[in-house]
């Protein structure tokens, strides 16, 4: 009898963990129609989702759970993912200047030219 109760408890525990894992994975992903900057390399840590041009990232913070949550985005992003329909470009300087890293639709990866030195984001005016 103890064996049956233990097996049932283990199965119930496993069933409860699956939705929790899916929820945290969904919360960590970049939503459709947005461009996300991540605090850590390889799309790790907290992220911020953007859907419009940002000439100066000062004042923007990483909002999701994970390393870097609550930190300012400017000069702190290490990777990015583009789920918007337009090409998004991260610039070293405010007002879209200096070295940059571009991401087409569904592209993602570590920032190279703007790694932890990112100040603005620009979305291409024509998509396609």
Rounded mean pLDDT score: 84
**CATH superfamily membership, which one?**
Crystallins
Alpha-carbon distance between the two ends: 64 Å
> Any idea how many domains?
1
CATH topology term = Gamma-B Crystallin, domain 1
Please identify, by name, the CATH architecture: Sandwich
- Anisotropy-based shape: globular
- What characterizes the major β-sheet? 4 strands, antiparallel
Would you give an account of this structure?
Keywords: Signal. Residues 1-27 form the signal peptide. This is Peptidase inhibitor family I36 protein. Pfam families: Inhibitor_I36. The N and C termini lie far apart (64 Å). This protein is an alpha+beta fold and 128 residues long. Strand 4 and strand 5 (97-103) form a beta hairpin. The strands form two sheets. The chain has a four-stranded antiparallel beta sheet, with no helix packed on it. Strands 5-4-7 form a three-stranded antiparallel beta sheet, with no helix packed on it. It has a single domain (31-123), classed as Crystallins (Gamma-B Crystallin, domain 1, Sandwich), CATH 2.60.20.10. It is built from one helix and seven strands, in the order αβββββββ. It is 21% helix and 29% strand.
């Amino acid at each position: 009898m103890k064996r049956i109760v233990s097996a049932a408890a283990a199965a119930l525990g496993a069933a409860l963990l699956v939705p929790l894992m899916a929820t945290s994975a969904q919360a960590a992903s970049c939503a459709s129609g947005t461009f996300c900057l991540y605090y850590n390399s390889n799309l790790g840590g907290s992220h911020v989702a953007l859907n419009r041009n940002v000439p100066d990232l000062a004042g923007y913070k990483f909002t999701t759970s994970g390393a870097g949550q609550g930190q300012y985005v400017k000069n702190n992003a290490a990777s990015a993912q583009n789920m918007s329909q337009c090409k998004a470009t991260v610039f070293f300087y405010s007002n879209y200047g200096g070295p940059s890293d571009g991401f087409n639709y569904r592209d993602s990866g570590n920032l190279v030219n703007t790694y932890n030195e990112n100040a603005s984001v620009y979305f291409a005016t024509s998509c396609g």
